[in-house]
Amino acid sequence: MQETDALTEAERLMTVCNSCRYCEGLCAVFPAMELRRSFEKGDLNYLANLCHNCGACYTDCQFSPPHEFKVNVPRTLAKVRAQSFKSYAWPKAFRPLFERNGLVIAMLSALGFAGFIAGFALAHDPEILFQGGSFYRLMPHNIMATLFMAVSLYALLALVMGFINFWRDTGASDIRSGAGISIWQAVKDAASLRYLDGGGVGCYNEDEYPTDRRRLFHHLTFYGFMLCFASTISGTVLHYLFDQPAPYSYFELPKLLGIPGGIGLTVGAAGLLWLKFRRDEVMMDMKSLGMDVAFIASLGLTGLSGLLLMLLRETPAMGILLSLHLGVVFALFLSMPYGKFVHGLYRFGALVIYAAERKLDRPVTHGHE
Ligand code: SF4
Ligand code: SF4
Predict the structure, then answer these.
(1) Of ligand 1's atoms, which has the minimum distance to the CA of residue 17?
(2) What is the model's pLDDT at position 176?
(3) Ligand 2 within 6 A of 55 CB?
(4) What is the mean pLDDT of the chain?
(5) Residue 319 lies in a domain
(6) pTM exceeds 0.85, yes or no
(7) Which residues line ligand 1 (CB under 6 A)?
(8) What are the residues whose beta carbons fall under 8 Å from the beta carbon of 158, sequence distance 6 or more?
(9) Does 367 fall in a domain?
C-alpha cells in the first residue's frame, strides 16, 4: 500500500497504462513506465517528476472520465509531484511551507523586505529615498552583496540537500557507467523542453487544440532568468575584479545581458500566468496553484521591476523602485527551495535517470537494480 492517496492512484494508473500502452510515443513517462512491472514510491516520484504536464495523454486517453476507469495521468502525476517537492525539502521543519498560500507569502516577504529598506533610508535621510542616481546611497554595495550572497548560499544548500533526498528516494544508484553521457542528454532534453510537446503536436491548455505557446513562454522565462543571472555575475566581476562599479552603459556586459533577460523574464512570466488561468482545471492539481502562481509572479516582478529601475533610475522613483526590486529578488531567492523553483531541479534529475535507462535498457531506480 502506498503512503498517500495520490501515490495509490498513480500506482493504479501506471498498471492500467502498462496494459494499454497507447501513449508510449507521447513523452518519456510511458517508455520509462514500460520498463517496470511494479511501481514503488521512488519509481512513482521519478515518473511524476519526468512528466511535463503537457496534457496529451489525458486528451488522447479512451479511459479518461467519464469512463469508469477514470484515467487522468497529468493531474495524478501533478499531485504526486507536489507531494514529492514537500517530502524532499530541507530542513524538514520548513516542509509545511509548501502547503501555505505561496502567493501571499511571496508577496508579503517581498513587501516586508522592500519596506525594511525604504524605512531604513527614511529613518536616516528621507531625501535619499526620493533622489535619482546611485543605488548605493540607498544601500551600500557591500551590504547589498553580503545580504544576497548569504541568501543565495542558503538557497543553494537547501536545494542541494533537497536534490540528495530526491536521488536517495528514487534509489538511482546504478548509473555511474556513462553518467556523463546521461547528464549531457538530460541537459539537451531540459534545454529544449523536449517532452513538453505532446508527442510533437504541442501542449494542451484550454481546449483540445494543442499549441506551442507554453513551451515558448517557458523558454522566454527560463532563458530570461539565466541572462539576468549572468548579468548580475558580470556586474559583480566588473565591480570587484576591474574596479568598475555600476552604472554601466548600454554597451557593457551587465546591460547587454540584463535588458534581453529582463524582457524575456517579464514577457515569459506574463504569458505563463495567462496560460495558467486559462488552462482546463481537469489536468491540474489545484492545490498547487498558489505555489505555481507565486513563483511565476515573483519571476515576472523581478524582470519588470529591474527594467523599470533601469529606465527610471535618474528620477525620484528610483528609491522606491530599488526597494521593491531588492524585496522581490530577496523573496524569490529565499522561497526557491520551498516553491515551484524545485521542479526544474528534480525534473533534470529525472531526465538524467531516463537517459541512463534508455542507454542501459533497464530500470535503475529503487527496487529494480
Ligand atoms: S493514458 Fe489512457 S490511453 Fe494512454 S496509456 Fe494510459 S490508459 Fe492508455
Ligand atoms: S501529461 Fe504529457 S508529459 Fe505527462 S505523462 Fe502525459 S503525455 Fe507525458
Answers:
(1) 6
(2) 66
(3) yes
(4) 91
(5) yes
(6) yes
(7) 16-17, 20-23, 57, 60-63, 71, 73
(8) 89, 90, 91, 94, 336, 337, 338
(9) no
Q: Is 211 helix (H, G, I), strand (E, B) or coil?
A: strand
Which residue pairs, CB below 8 angstroms and at least 24 apart, start in 175-179?
A: 175/352, 175/353, 175/356, 175/360, 175/364, 178/356, 178/359, 178/360, 179/352, 179/356
CA atoms of 163 and 326, how far apart (whole Å): 27
pLDDT at residue 369, as a whole number: 47
Binned at pLDDT 50, 70 and 90, residue 237 comes out as very high
Residue 50 lies in a domain: no
Give me the domain span that covers residue 265. Answer: 90-360
Q: Is the CB of 75 under 6 A from ligand 2?
A: no
How far apart are alpha carbons 187 and 273 in whole angstroms? 25
**Predicted confidence band of residue 344 (pLDDT cuts 50, 70, 90):** very high
Instruction: Kindly state the cell numbers that stand for 49.
Output: 517528476
Nearest CA to ligand 2 atom 2: 54
Each residue's pLDDT tens digit, 290-299? 889 989 999 9
Q: Which of 195, 205, 285 to mutate to test the pocket of ligand 2 (most atoms within 8 A of CB)?
A: 195
For residue 102, the model assigns a pLDDT of 67
Q: Output the CA 36–ligand 1 centroid distance in Å.
A: 16
Q: Is the pLDDT of residue 101 over 80?
A: no
Q: What total number of domains does the chain contain?
A: 1
Residue 80 placed within a domain: no
224 within 8 A of 265, measured Cβ to Cβ: yes
Q: Can you state the angle between helices 141-170 and 342-360, rounded to 10 degrees?
A: 40
